[in-house]
Every structure is written in structure tokens, then in C-alpha cells.
Specification:
This protein is of the alpha/beta class. 44% of the residues lie in helices and 16% in strands. The chain contains 12 helices and 10 strands. The protein has an 8-stranded parallel sheet with strand order 1-10-9-8-5-4-3-2. Strands 6-7 form a two-stranded antiparallel ribbon. Helix 3 links the parallel strand 2 (42-47) and strand 3 (74-78). The longest helix is centred in the middle third of the chain and has 18 residues, at 115-132. Bound molecules: 3-hydroxy-3-methylglutaryl-coenzyme A and magnesium ion. The site of 3-hydroxy-3-methylglutaryl-coenzyme A (HMG) has 26 residues, from helix 4, helix 5 and strand 5.
Length: 300
């Protein structure tokens, strides 16, 4: 049955902007403030990764220093290793996320190590976060397919998800990084993962590359999954996954949830305005169908 409430994890300022040419630090800060004002309770606001690998996130410390923090909002960041974790802590992040993959090839391209090495590298991050009382979210990328190695076995996704859970992550976000999943492959993957990780601890992270994200989200909701990652205006992609177009647009997710009478706390009009703010800065249209429809409605 469907959940009555969903927590939306807004990843636009990170997953979205990590793949965009150049957005000023002050525009990033303004975007995050607008997203909080629209009612978001969880905003992934940056990444403490190597600036050589992802230059777009090099100003994350300045971003965290500049945002107007709201007491009820979690401002999170990606931390691939202890160095990133220490920087994130100095920046006073609310919580951090570690990110592994279910595909060996993607793990190498994205974080320059094998899956096993990545899990070992996360151990000291987990230990430090536990000591500091900072919660850690875990991502598994390429849960349906990999841009370098093709199909990914559901059993591999389950194995990595379970490892992150056992390590102490409070939630595991399952990422269809290149958006190739359909309800059939997503259900097979969720069957395997939910056999080893309770659904209350799962989140889904779909990219809309092939236009399947909302169908896949509906499948996940019907499985009782109540945490959905999305990006305002459908921003983003992944620098290490060619052709990975944007994340599912938050506006589209909100419209779906509104239609299903599932509460989430986000105001659609304020959210769409934040989407227009950032896409204006990027000189492009929102890739959200709902965002575009609302825009057309406003101008008629
Ligand atoms: P490496 O080159 O193997 O690392 O990269 P290293 O330890 O050998 O260090 C190399 C240099 O980077 C050194 O600097 C380090 O100090 C520096 P140098 O001595 O050469 O001047 N360095 C750092 N600097 C700042 N912050 C750090 C850091 N670590 C090392 N944390 C590494 C390994 C993991 C660092 C690198 O591969 C990396 O940063 N990768 C991040 C890639 C990334 O951010 N990808 C996008 C996010 S994942 C994603 O989008 C998928 C997701 O959305 C889910 C989905 O869609 O499915 C989550
Ligand atoms: Mg992503």
C-alpha cells in the first residue's frame, strides 16, 4: 500500500549542479535558501570531493558558510573519504553521505577504487561520524545498469546496500544513475534489496534519462518506500556517467504525490519558482514537465 507521507531529499544543489558548467557561489546559496523556503526539509547542498574530479563542487565550504540555516532543515553533503568528511565537519554540515556503487567499473571511474576498497575507505568516515554524532546516509549507484559494464545484477545491489547498512548508514539510497530502469527491472532490484534491507531504510534516486522515473517511483511507493530523491527543475546528471541526464524533477514528484494525497511539505509554486530561478541562471528551460506547464499557465 502507498505511504501517507513521503520525505523528499532535494539533491538539485549537489547532484544537479555538479554537472552544470558554472553557477556562482551566491546563486547556489540563493537556490538553497529558496528550496528551504519552499518547504524542503532535506537539501543536499554540496560535496566535499576532490576539486580535480568535480570542480563544480569546489566551493561547497563557502556555500555552507553562506546559507541561511533553518532549524528544521537538514543540509547534507557527500563525503567520499576522511578528508572530505573533515572538511564537511568544519563546514558544519547537518549530515553526510558516503557513495558506493553496485558496478566495479563505475566505482573505478567515479571514486577511483574498487567496491571493496570503497567500503574500506568508508569505515573511518563512519567511525568519525559516529564519534561526532553525525548521521551518515549511504548511496548505491548503478542499481539497474552501468554506463561502462551494462546490466547490474540485483544481487550485487543487495550486497552493497547491506554492507552500507551494516556499516551504520541510517538510510540507503538506491540510485539508477543512468535512468535505464523500468518497473520490471526496478521491481527485481527492489525484491533483492528488500530481502536484506528493511524498506523503512530505503530511498530511491531515479534519473529521468529515458523518461521512466515517475513510473519507477510509483513502483517504489507501492513497495512502501517513503523517501524519494529528486532535483529541482530536473537538474543534473553525473560527470562519470555520460548521457546521464537529469535527476527526476522535484516538481514532477510533488505533482505526483499531490495527486496521490501523499503529504510531503513542499509548496509546488514556490518550488517551481526556485526551479525557474536556477534555470534562468543556467540559461536553459527547466526539464520538469510540471515546471514548464506551470510556467505556461502563468504567462497565459
Ligand atoms: P584519488 O585521486 O584516488 O584520491 O580520488 P587521492 O586520495 O589519491 O587524492 C588525490 C588528490 O585529491 C589529492 O590532492 C588529495 O588531497 C585530493 P593533491 O595532493 O593531488 O593536490 N583529495 C581531496 N580534495 C578535497 N576533498 C576530498 C579529497 N580527497 C582527495 N575529499 C576521490 C579519489 C574519491 C577523492 C575522487 O575520485 C573523488 O573526489 N571522486 C568524487 C566523484 C564525484 O563526486 N562524483 C559525483 C558524485 S556520485 C553521483 O553523482 C551518484 C549519486 O548521485 C547516486 C546516483 O545518481 O546513482 C550519488
Ligand atoms: Mg544521482
Amino acid at each position: 500500500s502507498l505511504p501517507t507521507r513521503v520525505r523528499i531529499v532535494e539533491v538539485g544543489p549537489r547532484d544537479g549542479l555538479q554537472n552544470e558548467a558554472s553557477v556562482s557561489t551566491s546563486d547556489k546559496i540563493e537556490l538553497i535558501n529558496q528550496l528551504a523556503a519552499a518547504g524542503h526539509s532535506y537539501i543536499e547542498s554540496g560535496a566535499f570531493v576532490s576539486p580535480k574530479w568535480v570542480p563544480q563542487m569546489a566551493d561547497s565550504a563557502e556555500v555552507f558558510a553562506g546559507i541561511d540555516r533553518q532549524a528544521n532543515v537538514t543540509y547534507a553533503a557527500l563525503t567520499p573519504n576522511l578528508k572530505g568528511y573533515e572538511s564537511a565537519k568544519l563546514a558544519n554540515v547537518s549530515e553526510v553521505a558516503i557513495f558506493g556503487a553496485a558496478s566495479e567499473a563505475f566505482s573505478q571511474k567515479n571514486i577511483n577504487c574498487s567496491i571493496a576498497e570503497s567500503l574500506a575507505r568508508f569505515e573511518p568516515v563512519m567511525a568519525a561520524a559516529k564519534r561526532d554524532g553525525i548521521k551518515v546516509r549511504g548511496y548505491v549507484s548503478c542499481v539497474v545498469g552501468c554506463p561502462y559494464q551494462g546490466e547490474v545484477a540485483p544481487s550485487e545491489v543487495a550486497r552493497v546496500a547491506k554492507a552500507l547498512l551494516d556499516m551504520g548508514c541510517y538510510e540507503i539510497s538506491l540510485g539508477d544513475t543512468i535512468g535505464v530502469g523500468t518497473p520490471k527491472t526496478v521491481m527485481a532490484m527492489l525484491d533483492a534489496v528488500s530481502a536484506v534491507v528493511p524498506v523503512e531504510k530505503l530511498a530511491v534516486h531515479f534519473h529521468d534519462t529515458y523518461g521512466q522515473a515517475l513510473s519507477n517511483i510509483y513502483v517504489a511507493l507501492n513497495r512502501g518506500i517513503s523517501v524519494i530523491d529528486s532535483a529541482v527543475a530536473g537538474l543534473g546528471g553525473c560527470p562519470y556517467a555520460a548521457g546521464a541526464s537529469g535527476n527526476v524533477a522535484t516538481e514532477d514528484v510533488v505533482y505526483l504525490l499531490n495527486g496521490l494525497d501523499i503529504s510531503h511539505g513542499v509548496d509546488l509554486n514556490a518550488l517551481a519558482a526556485a526551479g525557474r530561478f536556477i534555470t534562468d541562471k543556467l540559461g536553459k528551460q527547466p526539464s520538469s514537465k510540471v515546471g514548464l506547464a506551470l510556467q505556461a499557465k502563468c504567462s497565459t
